[in-house]
Q: What sequence folds into this?
């Protein structure tokens, strides 16, 4: 695993400016629409919606904003239909990049993603060209400052709920699950009112790459900035060691 603090990265993202927070809310808002259309507006019978609501709360989205999003998606049959797409490619210095999108215009999104790669000296590849370097896993991060429970107590709770792995960092705990068991493990922590800094199904690199060239670092940053600025981009996964 990477040596850097995952919780520090999460906290830094949460403390960014209002534009960054707005982007996060846009991402989650679209996920709410898709979850409601696929499984209905009742979280009790829609596990995907429960997961998105938990993600929204971890991102400090107000409850009334969440509720409005659910009601709007449930009551507007003519609302936008979002289509998900995944792009894979190579960044500078041998980095691997996976981009997940949710869009109402696939042509626009494809052009924007390719442009981001190109401007940073990378290129979009074929499906599967880099995803084999990652494992799809549920990942839950709990900040030590947010819980009074010991590492052993949290580990037993996680493993009893079906988690695959538990690890301790300087400032946080990381719980890894299979994608199928993610909801059950997350809900076990939620039931015990344990605050989670983040909880999502993600792509975890099997190995990490360190960029040594200043040009590579600059170009990689440009790709990330352009993707981050695109509202159609839901998530970006890389194997760079930050």
A:
């Amino acid at each position: 695993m990477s040596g850097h603090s995952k919780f520090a990265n999460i906290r830094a993202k949460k403390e960014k400016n209002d534009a960054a927070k707005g982007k996060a809310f846009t991402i989650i808002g679209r996920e709410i629409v898709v979850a409601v259309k696929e499984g209905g507006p009742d979280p009790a019978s829609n596990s995907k919606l429960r997961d998105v609501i938990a993600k929204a709360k971890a991102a400090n989205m107000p409850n009334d904003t969440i509720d409005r999003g659910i009601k709007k998606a449930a009551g507007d049959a003519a609302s936008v239909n979002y289509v998900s797409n995944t792009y894979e490619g190579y960044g500078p210095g041998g980095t691997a990049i996976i981009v997940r999108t949710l869009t109402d215009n696939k042509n626009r999104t494809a052009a924007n993603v390719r442009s981001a790669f190109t401007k940073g000296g990378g290129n979009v590849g074929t499906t599967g060209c880099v995803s084999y370097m990652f494992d799809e896993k549920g990942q839950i991060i709990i900040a030590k400052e947010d819980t009074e429970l010991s590492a052993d107590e949290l580990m037993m709770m996680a493993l009893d709920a079906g988690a695959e792995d538990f690890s301790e960092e300087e400032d946080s705990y990381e719980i890894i699950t299979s994608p199928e068991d993610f909801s059950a493990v997350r809900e076990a922590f939620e039931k015990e009112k344990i605050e989670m800094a983040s909880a999502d199904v993600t792509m975890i690199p099997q190995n990490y790459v360190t960029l040594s060239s200043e040009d590579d670092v600059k170009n990689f940053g440009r790709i990330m900035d352009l993707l981050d600025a695109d509202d159609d981009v839901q998530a970006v996964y890389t194997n760079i060691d930050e």
Notes: DSSP finds eight helices and eight strands in the chain. The CA atoms of residues 153 and 159 lie 10 Å apart. Helices lie at 6-14, 18-39, 47-58, 63-75, 106-119, 151-161, 182-191, 214-228. The radius of gyration is 18 Å.
